[in-house]
Design a protein that fits this description.
Layout lengths: L12 H4 L32 E7 L1 H6 L8 E9 L3 E11 L15 E4 L15 E5 L6 H20 L6 E10 L5 E10 L2 H8 L2 E2 L12 H14 L20 E5 L5 E5 L13 H4 L1 H6 L17 H13 L1 H9 L6 H18 L2 H7 L8
Parallel strand pairs: 1-6
Antiparallel strand pairs: 1-2, 2-3, 3-4, 4-5, 5-7, 6-7, 8-9, 9-10
């Protein structure tokens, strides 16, 4: 990353002045969820949701353009009081890498609900929702999906500034193929507008974010989390090449006069998830940093974050058993996949439990930006 890539925009104090919170690391951004009372019905439970989606799936899946069209369908789920509830939904493909046919035969979807017609249902207050799908029929892909879902959940354990997710067992009924059906795991991601309302931090639509505009304490939580999961495919300050808005696989939120915060998403090419296509998609990035595969970790925290590192590490230690329990108790995760996850987390916790390894792998390998 080049320092020259960061620019100052005089009309936005967020860029033009260094921000320092002046508070202890967890006074402003608590490590656990504080706002469950305002969560919409869909995200008030972590129980697996059983739903049926009926739509012209063959047509939907074939349309992989950036401006793909929406197609009408229905979504049904069971309700203890009302029986089966069916709501209308418009469906289209979405995504970047996973939109490619060479990556996913069944791409991610976007569900668009008419607000007036979902009032009083589980999908009340929902509009456009991202759905992560199984990608391929191979069971390995569904295991990757479960690991990615749990990665979102693990970040929920650490901070409110994270996207809520809901795991679902989805039966897809293709109305173009005489009702041909398959049932797979998938998960739904909270809309960014809902995350904005829940956290009280506005979405920032900016070309870049100055590192000094970021609140350093929660930024360090993000940096250590990305190290924990082995993610090289993110940037809280710059956009991906060709994009006009910041930032790569992170959503900046905050106020125009500071501070700014960063909310991560898309974890499929991390070491913890280890999707089958991960190494292929980030090959150039791995080569740039001298890494052989996504399972190798590299700390990309700022050197100025080092003063917060002790408090951040303590947070991860305090939440260790909760994070492990997420994976150990997840329905559907296979024993071999679980063993690899636990071994990967064990390696991280061995690093942060050893001062010498912290200096060697983290504080001594920080970025001067």
């Amino acid at each position: 990353m080049r320092a020259s890539a960061f620019v100052a925009i005089a009309v936005l104090p967020l860029f033009s002045a260094e921000y320092r919170s002046g508070v202890e690391p967890w006074e402003e951004i608590g490590p656990t969820a504080r706002m469950d009372s305002v969560l919409p019905p869909l995200f008030q439970s972590n129980e697996i949701l059983t739903i049926t989606i009926s739509a012209p799936l063959r047509t939907i899946i074939q349309d992989r353009r950036d401006d793909s069209e929406e197609h009408p369908g229905t979504l049904s789920y069971g309700n203890a009081d009302a029986g089966v509830v069916t709501v209308p939904v418009d469906i289209k493909t979405r995504g970047n890498s996973r939109l490619q046919r060479s990556i996913c035969r069944f791409p991610p979807l976007r569900l668009d609900f008419p607000r007036k017609r979902v009032a009083g249902t589980l999908f009340e207050d929902q509009d456009k929702l991202k759905m992560v799908t199984h990608c391929q029929d191979n069971p390995d892909y569904e295991q990757s999906l479960l690991r990615e879902y749990l990665t979102y959940r693990a970040y929920n354990v650490l901070t409110d500034l994270s996207y809520r997710v809901r795991l679902a067992r989805i039966t897809y009924v293709d109305t173009e193929r005489e009702g041909e059906a398959i049932t797979k795991f998938g998960f739904i991601i909270e809309h960014e507008d809902a995350m904005e309302a829940r956290t009280g931090h506005a979405l920032l639509e900016l070309p870049v974010i100055s590192p000094d505009a970021m609140d350093p304490a929660p930024l360090n939580v993000l940096e250590v989390f990305q190290f924990m999961i082995g993610n090289m495919d993110w940037d809280p300050f710059l956009s991906e090449s060709g994009d006009d808005e910041c930032c790569h696989n992170t959503q900046p939120v905050g106020e125009s006069n500071g501070p700014a915060y960063s909310v991560p998403y898309d974890f499929d090419v991390t070491g913890l998830v280890s999707s089958r296509y991960a190494n292929r998609l980030v090959r150039e990035t791995l080569h740039r940093y001298g890494l052989r595969n996504v399972r190798e970790r590299l700390y990309r925290g700022r050197c100025r974050s080092n003063e917060y590192l002790d408090a951040t590490i303590q947070l991860f230690l305090d939440r260790k058993e909760t994070i492990y329990m997420l994976f150990r108790t997840q329905e559907g995760i296979e024993s071999r996949a679980l063993e690899r996850v636990i071994a990967y987390l064990d390696d991280f916790y061995e690093i942060i439990g050893n001062p010498g390894r912290i200096r060697r792998h983290m504080s001594g390998s920080c970025r001067n930006i």
